[in-house]
Amino acid sequence: MSDRHSPQILTPRMWLTAFMGITRREALRFVNQRGRFLAALVRPLVWLFIFAAGFRAVLGLSITPPYQTYVLYEVYVTPGLCAMIQLFNGMQSSLSMVYDRETGAMRTLLVSPFPRWFLLGSKLVAGVIVSIIQVYVFLAIAWFWGVDPPLFGYITVLPALVLSGLMLGAMGLFLSSAIRQLENFAGVMNFVIFPMFFASSALYPLWRMAESSTLLHDICAANPFTHAVELIRFALYGQINPLSLAAVTGCLILFFAGAVFMYDPSKGLWARRKGGA
Amino acid sequence: MGAALEIDHVSHSFGGFQALSDVSLSVPRGSFTALLGVNGAGKTTLFSLITRLYNNTSGRISVAGHDLRRQPGAALARLGVVFQSRALDADLTVAQNLTYHAALHGIPRRQALIRAAEVLAQVGLSDRLHARVSALSGGQSRRAEIARALIHRPEILLLDEPTVGLDVKSRAEVVALTRDLTAQGVSALWATHILDEIRPEDGLVILHQGRVLADGTAARIGGGDLTRRFLDLTGDAA
């Protein structure tokens, strides 16, 4: 075999090639799993078409920023459903990480000469790209349902979607490092996804929650998912919510650092795991 | 020129369980070295340390002269690994899997496709480039795994019980293929618990309960009856 020797230094082009390769694989997996795309789309659409229609009459909404007038419940709930797509996508990525670890495919990724933070980061970004495509398809369908934010909102929401997608994906990545078996994933659904979604501003404004319980309001206000929703909500109307921006960015750093720590061979649970990756 | 792989006084434990104790071995360049041990001997743990899935905190592991702790990127770039469990994505084609693996070593797609055709020819799977992995037989799948491990042109191949679950014919093919590769200059560390996969001229390391019990050529260690010798050694150690 000639020319066997691998290069000693990883050039910028090699980093880009690795990133593109990881992204391409995620895209191929996504395309091959059409059911996953449909499920990701049907879930928020059911909420929009059925839940929102039913609750429109029950839940009164006052004028709260970024809205400058009374809005239909469908309009209010749409940013929350965008974040829900990203939350489920993050968990789906987490599930596929655990699955890859059980089957052995994860080892292929981790024995690459690139540093682990880069490999995990690339996988995270690839997942976010997929989730953003899903969100835009959802927003396009919602437009036909009368949810029509200003046109520039479709552009200004993009950075918010990138940030919230990264934060929720990093959370999934962090969780995946702690889940030992695929069977434990149902627990994550019950103890992470549902509480995060329902204890947030996705379905009802926080002031409504405060009317029922101050403690519940405070929990919702501290929920990172609430800030992802609010970041998207404001961005969809061309505005920035500084508190949500700071909270989402902070959580992203925290979750990603946690995931890198946990996947480090010398630290975290990974180091104590017997029987392989 | 040093060895393709050198392991020097490496130990590893999981909590209170000592999985490896003071393991030292060397794989000369272009050699076929068998790592023989029963299930639970510590072969997979040792492979996990060499591939940096676990961190080695004691001793030294060096791949083609590159210290795994100090130069992990350079060391891993020279390793090709065939894991015991399936590492190919069954939903993707062989070409998609190989180009993905090449990308993980920074090899651009166009170059990766050329190399994929080359390595598949080497393992006798030229006609399966665009087949889905799920459509491959067990033997073809293992050979595709070897092709995956070869695509970045490693200096040493680690094969962790690669014939597990294969029928006799496929097993013979995979062993023969690996020997062909060593004849071409690739070094191989072949973990196994099957004695008839080992030839007298092969390098042999017997690992049992995390300790190296014997290290040399199979002919020297076996002395004409490797099975008897292996049972004597592991029986005494048990």
Automatic annotation (TrEMBL), chain A:
Keyword Repeat: no
Topology relative to the membrane: Multi-pass membrane protein
Keywords: Cell membrane, Membrane, Transmembrane, Transmembrane helix, Transport
Residue ranges that the Swiss-Prot or TrEMBL entry lists as coiled coil: none
InterPro entries in UniProt: ABC2_TM, ABC2_TM_bact-type, ABC_2_transport, Alc_ABC_transptr_permease, T7SS_ABC-Transporter
UniProt keyword annotation of DNA-binding present: no
ABC transmembrane type-2 domain sequence ranges: 35-266
Cellular compartments per GO CC: ATP-binding cassette (ABC) transporter complex
Xref: PROSITE patterns: ABC_TM2
Subcellular location: Cell inner membrane; Membrane
One Gene Ontology molecular-function label: ABC-type transporter activity
Membrane-spanning residues: 37-58, 70-88, 124-145, 151-175, 187-207, 243-263
Protein family according to the UniProt entry: Belongs to the ABC-2 integral membrane protein family.
NCBIfam families, sorted: phenyl_ABC_PedC (TIGR03861)
Protein name (Swiss-Prot/TrEMBL): Transport permease protein
Source organism: Paracoccus lutimaris
Automatic annotation (TrEMBL), chain B:
Transport among keywords: yes
Domain ABC transporter: 5-234
SMART domains assigned to the protein according to its UniProt record, in alphabetical order: AAA
Domain of life, source organism: Bacteria
Record-level Gene Ontology MF annotations: ATP binding; ATP hydrolysis activity
SUPFAM superfamilies tied to this protein: P-loop containing nucleoside triphosphate hydrolases
InterPro entries from the UniProt entry: AAA+_ATPase, ABC_transporter-like_ATP-bd, ABC_transporter-like_CS, ABC_transporter_ATP-binding, ABC_transprt_ATP-bd_su_PQQ, P-loop_NTPase
UniProt cross-references to Gene3D superfamilies, sorted A to Z: P-loop containing nucleotide triphosphate hydrolases
Entry keyword annotation includes Nucleotide-binding: yes
Keywords: ATP-binding, Nodulation, Nucleotide-binding, Transport
Family from the record: Belongs to the ABC transporter superfamily.
NCBIfam families registered for this protein in UniProt: PQQ_ABC_ATP
Name listed for the protein in its UniProt record: ABC-2 type transport system ATP-binding protein
Source organism of the structure: Paracoccus lutimaris
